[in-house]
Specification:
Length: 129
């Protein structure tokens, strides 16, 4: 993910950790779409950041793809606006608004926006014992 300075804009500092966080994902998506980096095809923001959990909101333009990715943690991807196509393990998943895909650790996946879309990704890392 790019730093705020490399995006050419400064975001208001919002807490990303603490005993209680309340977020409006619709407002987060609108903010992403009004930042200059949106012109590149997609823009993301980490809205929750703990050592074992991340929540990232992404706005993505139609026909934009996120090439093969994988995470050391389990991930959940939920489409909150629009329509995404996901591919993983040789299967294709149609994620319209409200659709959810959960992937185990180190499972490669790709995403493509069918139309201007937004999704939230939750990443949970294994507990350290």
């Amino acid at each position: 993910m790019m730093s705020e300075q490399s995006r050419g804009t400064a975001r208001a500092l919002e807490p990303t950790e603490g005993p209680l966080l309340a977020l409006d994902l619709g407002d987060q998506v609108e903010q992403l779409r009004h930042e200059p980096y949106w012109q590149s095809g997609r823009n993301s923001k980490t809205v929750v950041h703990y050592s074992d959990l991340r929540v990232v909101v992404t706005a993505i333009q139609a026909k934009t793809s996120i090439q093969e990715h994988k995470s050391a943690g389990r991930i959940m991807i939920q489409t909150i606006q629009g329509h995404l196509l996901a591919q993983s393990a040789g299967k294709r998943f149609d994620l319209q608004t409200g659709g959810v895909l959960v992937l185990d650790r180190d499972t490669p996946y790709e995403l493509t926006a069918v139309e201007d879309s937004a999704f939230v990704m939750v990443v949970a890392w294994p507990c350290e014992e």
